[in-house]
Amino acid sequence: MAINRYTKMAYDSADDMIFGKCKHPVKTGLGLEIGGGYTTPEINYAPRPEAGASKEKLVKEYQRITTDIMNRMVQVGFPAVVLETEHVEQMTNNPTWGGEVAHAQKTIMEEFHDEYGIKCALRHTPGDIREDRDYLDLRGDKFTVLMESFEEIAANGADMLSLESMGGKEVFDYSILRNDVPGMLYAIGCLGTMDMDFIWQEISSVAKKHGVVSAGDTDCSEANTAMFIGGGLLDKNLAHTLAIIARAISAPRSLAAYEAGAVGPGKDCGYENTIIKAISGVPISQEGKTSTCAHSDVMGNVVMQCCDLWSNESVEYHAEFGGTSVQCWGESLAYDCALMNTATATGQEKTLRDLFMLSDKYRDPQGYVLAYDNAYRVGEAIVKDGNDIYLRAKNAALKSVEIMEEGIAGKLEMTKFEKGALADAKAALMALTDDQDTFMSDCMTKYKEEVKVFLPENYGL
Amino acid sequence: MTSLDIDPSDILVRYNVKLEKAMTPKDAAAELYPKDELYRQIAVAIFDGEEDDVIEGLEKAIAAGKNPIALIDDALMVGMKVVTDLYDQGTIFLPNVMMSADAMLDGIEFCKSQSDEAPVSKGKVVCHVAEGDVHDIGKTIVAALLRANGYEVVDLGRDVPVDEVIEAVKAEKPLMLTGTALMTTTMYAFKAVNDRLLEASLNVPFACGGGAVNQDFVSTYDLGIYGEEAADAPKIADKILAGSSISALKEEFHKH
């Protein structure tokens, strides 16, 4: 499949963006339309550790999980649901395991759909297994196994195909621990995008062959690593100003999936998704206050602002007082969606969107930049040089810096440390060339020397 | 676009802004540097994470008659302690520690190259990422913080088979083993490591942490000590050196 870069925005203004609706809705699964006028809960789960011991145990675990979720959805009267299965490594490394799990889950979902008419769809996300003990191996034998996994799940019931791809992570892990913003730009914006171009053309071909949806990626391995290292307000591991610069750079990287044939919905943990929706018009999944089962979050409400699917990120399957964990968290998600859908039905959706956004906008620099009005501006900076993967990533980083500086002049409070890190990042970005070839060449020399596990051949370099 | 806006102080509190210390990191560090000018120059270079300046300072000190191996404890580790103390106090952030640790390690290698003697570390720690798990940034941070605190680290890397962990513990005889994992299914390997260590009568404290790892899980095996943050690793090692038993470590570090 060809690469078609975005050079203009899907929306004429930020105010046109809303939850539950997008420019290019996606029909999938059993009667579901994502982004077609309503939000839908997307429930994500992890098997108990002991379930990984054999294929039979895993299949049984996912049957229990699926049945529990579907039962709870009909018990409380929710009209639609999406299930996302993020593979444990055994399911991707043994492609038939993933296929059998997908088949088992879809069989149960079909039974519920037939009996109750509940709209539903199944997303499967294989693990990005393209690495060995010491190095990323993005284009070798593990790539072949990964594609076999996509074939198996697409042939056996998965409606949507996703991935959390790892391109650039070896350089990113080195850079983020050293406040090295040009390194982050090279890792995410350049290496990450190059791998996205490669892998998403392949995934989109598999999806097309099987008549399922090529859904999209998330920069979990890089921007979320920065977000998690950043942590809460009092954590001392990374300036949140750097975490949001990494996030801004991740938007053009994750956008590359849609430039290579994916159509959405983008994956839940892609906090860059509001920017991507503004550019591409694809539906997006998001997670926030209802993913505290997986991680704390300083953007719990703001990320609901433009979601089409609303997710819990992941919860280990186990018993709670109110049922199993997937039933409890799924029910919370579905009630959130009912509220958003009620707002839409009563014409109050923009008010609710703005309440979601304002309740977090000043909590942290990350939420400030991702507030939909500012996210839209980052999108504009990306499409301005949409055909140059380096320049558009640099534009995104600089625009996020500019937005934060405006915030400091207004109501966004920051520590001296955060301001200092922001000033250092700005200086590093301003010192960079505008020429992609020069930047790539300089970075190749530097990181081949400094990062022992960086293999340029992973990126066709 | 919305015309709504709020006074955020009615909605949220930026506690990090409210509690930020008045003193800058550089000012705080200046109060902790050694007085001896030769040592001080090296300590400042460590704080700044400047490898070349560290080597230059070491060359000056050696030229002035200082013993290269003694400089590791007297200058490099003193400079690094300034960094780790300020990190523990919340005055500086992790990337500063990482850059300082890089500079310190370069300095140690330089000192070793200038002498026939071998330095003595505080103790040895074996670090690994669970079998089946390739997410290793947490282990990288743990290893750096241990080195920054004067421990020798044997880094087994990621996706380490249980057999290899056991063999490394037998061969290296560390004071502590660490294990990190991101995924619930891979952390199960920690139980196997624990059982094999006990079978071999290797009662080494096994500090575990990472994304999906939690205190409840680590509490289910005898040697396990849950570390909620990477910064707990050197603190646990310090307690072991001071004579704490595994049950005492569990009592102190299992906070929930």
TrEMBL record, chain A:
GO terms for biological process: methylation. Keywords: Methyltransferase, Transferase. Pfam families: MtaB. GO terms for molecular function: methyltransferase activity. It comes from Methanococcoides seepicolus. This is Methanol--corrinoid methyltransferase. The keyword Methyltransferase applies. InterPro entries: MeOH-cob_MeTrfase_bsu (IPR021079).
UniProtKB/TrEMBL annotation, chain B:
PROSITE patterns: B12_BINDING, B12_BINDING_NTER. Belongs to the methylamine corrinoid protein family. InterPro entries: Cbl-bd_cap, Cobalamin-bd, Cobalamin-bd_sf, Corrinoid_p, Met_Synthase/Corrinoid, Meth_synthase_dom. Keywords: Cobalt, Metal-binding, Methyltransferase, Transferase. GO terms for molecular function: cobalamin binding; cobalt ion binding; methionine synthase activity. This is Methyltransferase cognate corrinoid protein. GO terms for cellular component: cytosol. Residues 122-247 form the B12-binding domain.
